[in-house]
């Protein structure tokens, strides 16, 4: 009975081939499982990084690939028809290509995870670049796998690529906005105008960057909602990145009545300078008698704050205001309220609301402010911040 012939081979030959296939599959899967268990116990040793690399490679080795290898080994013990032999070769080759791609994909993901984790807290822009480039590396890898598999199956790759080129032009014309956003994401990754965690302002939108994708970038606004902006529109806007603010220049003014004695006015610049220099984070720039107006005399001072945190800047400005106001009271000088400017056509008399919240960390721009008291109080200082 064992000498009986089936498909050009004896029953004994088929049994030997099946036995080799089964034993090879069981041995390969058992060795893989044993090796993974052994390496997992050695990840904290001196050679932990190399052990983790070997462990990642073994974990990426798929059981179906080991079964294909076992089938290929068993097929060597029987004589197959040319068609069946080519089929076995094609299956083994495609399985090998896919498995090699899985190893490469695992290596890319491990490299990305390592570099993103390493740079997220030191260089968020580099982390963003690595993430975007990693996606395109994966895309290129699997595109190559598909082409190699098709070539192995006998397809004419040259003609296929030529057809894809013509079809690609049509697809590009039909999806201009999508491709524009994709290329904009590449520009963001390479040029790095902002990074994840930066506080940015564009037009009337402000928020902290949470995610940079291939098509959109997502911000978390000051009021808590998420804002989604297409990458192409983001690059077209005038963008201000306050995360990269090194120092803030502050300018404010104080107004006095026209009948204030000249000898008292002469002391004001020195008072403003003393109030500014008393603050540890403030660097004095200037203080001058700026102008003689129709209803008041204006003094202006400017200084720099060496901290981009908005709340600490406001603490500094508040301390300057209190110190200056106390000194003016001591000298008997009465500040007055400056009359509001006449509104221009199309402009509102109301100022811009000051943003509050996470801009305190990132240093959002301050709007024009005034500290005002009732009309009957002529001793109310007005301190206007111009920039």
Q: What sequence of helices (H) and strands (E) makes up the elements?
A: EEHHHHHHHEEEEHEEHHEEHEHE
- Number of H- or I-type helical stretches: 12
* Number of DSSP E strands: 12
Radius of gyration: 36 Å
Helix proportion: 40-55%
Can you walk through the features of this model?
The protein has 387 residues and is α+β, with helices and mostly antiparallel strands. The chain has three domains: 170 residues; 63 residues, SH3 type barrels, CATH 2.30.30.60; 128 residues, 2-Layer Sandwich (Alpha-Beta Plaits). 52% of the residues lie in helices and 16% in strands. The protein is built from twelve helices and twelve strands. Strands 6-5-4-3-7 form a five-stranded antiparallel beta sheet. Helix 1 runs antiparallel to helix 3 and helix 4 packs antiparallel against helix 5. The longest helix is centred in the N-terminal third of the chain and has 38 residues. It is elongated, with a radius of gyration of 36 Å.
Brief summary of the model shown:
The chain is an alpha+beta fold and 387 residues long. The protein folds into three domains: 5-174; 181-243, SH3 type barrels, CATH 2.30.30.60; 246-340 and 353-385, Alpha-Beta Plaits. It is built from twelve helices and twelve strands.
Walk me through the topology:
Blueprint: E1 5-6, E2 9-10, H1 11-40, H2 48-60, H3 63-75, H4 82-119, H5 124-152, H6 157-174, H7 176-191, E3 199-202, E4 205-212, E5 216-221, E6 226-230, H8 231-236, E7 239-241, E8 248-256, H9 262-265, H10 268-277, E9 282-292, E10 297-305, H11 310-331, E11 335-336, H12 359-362, E12 384-385
Antiparallel strand pairs: 1-2, 3-4, 3-7, 4-5, 5-6, 8-10, 8-11, 8-12, 9-10
Helix pairs in contact: 1-2, 1-3, 2-4, 3-4, 4-5, 5-7, 10-11
């Amino acid at each position: 009975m064992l000498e009986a012939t089936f498909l050009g081979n004896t029953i004994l030959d088929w049994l030997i081939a099946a036995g080799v296939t089964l034993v090879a599959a069981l041995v390969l899967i058992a060795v893989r499982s044993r090796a993974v268990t052994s390496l997992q116990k050695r990840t904290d040793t001196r050679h932990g990084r190399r052990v983790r690399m070997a462990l990642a490679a073994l974990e990426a080795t798929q059981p179906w690939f080991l079964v294909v290898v076992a089938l290929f080994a068993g097929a060597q013990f029987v004589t197959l028809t040319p068609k069946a032999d080519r089929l076995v070769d094609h299956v083994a080759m495609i399985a090998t290509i896919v498995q090699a791609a899985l190893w490469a994909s695992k290596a890319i993901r491990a490299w990305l995870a390592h570099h993103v984790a390493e740079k997220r807290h030191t260089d968020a822009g580099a982390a963003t670049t690595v993430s975007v480039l990693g996606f395109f590396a994966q895309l290129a890898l699997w595109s190559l796998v598909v082409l190699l598999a098709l070539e192995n199956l006998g397809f004419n790759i040259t003609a296929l690529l030529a057809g894809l080129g013509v079809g690609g032009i049509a697809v590009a014309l039909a999806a201009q906005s999508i491709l524009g956003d994709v290329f904009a994401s590449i520009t963001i990754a390479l040029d790095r105008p902002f990074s994840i965690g930066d506080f940015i302002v564009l037009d009337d939108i402000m928020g902290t960057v949470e995610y940079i994708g291939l098509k959109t970038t997502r911000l978390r606004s000051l009021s808590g909602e998420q804002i989604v902006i297409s990458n192409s529109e983001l690059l077209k806007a005038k963008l201000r990145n306050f995360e990269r603010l090194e120092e803030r220049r502050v300018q404010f003014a104080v107004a006095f009545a026209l009948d204030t004695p000249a000898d008292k006015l002469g002391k004001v610049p020195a008072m403003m300078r003393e109030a500014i220099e008393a603050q540890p984070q403030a660097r004095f720039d200037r203080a001058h008698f700026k102008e003689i107006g129709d209803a008041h005399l204006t003094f202006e001072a400017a200084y720099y704050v060496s901290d981009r945190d908005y709340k600490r800047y406001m603490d500094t400005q508040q301390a300057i205001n209190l110190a200056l106001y106390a000194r003016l009271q001591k000298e008997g000088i009465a500040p007055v309220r400056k009359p509001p400017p006449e509104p221009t056509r199309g402009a509102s008399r109301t100022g811009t609301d000051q943003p509050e919240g996470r801009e305190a960390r990132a240093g959002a721009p301050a709007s024009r402010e005034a500290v005002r008291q009732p009309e009957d109080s002529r001793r109310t200082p007005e301190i206007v911040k111009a920039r």
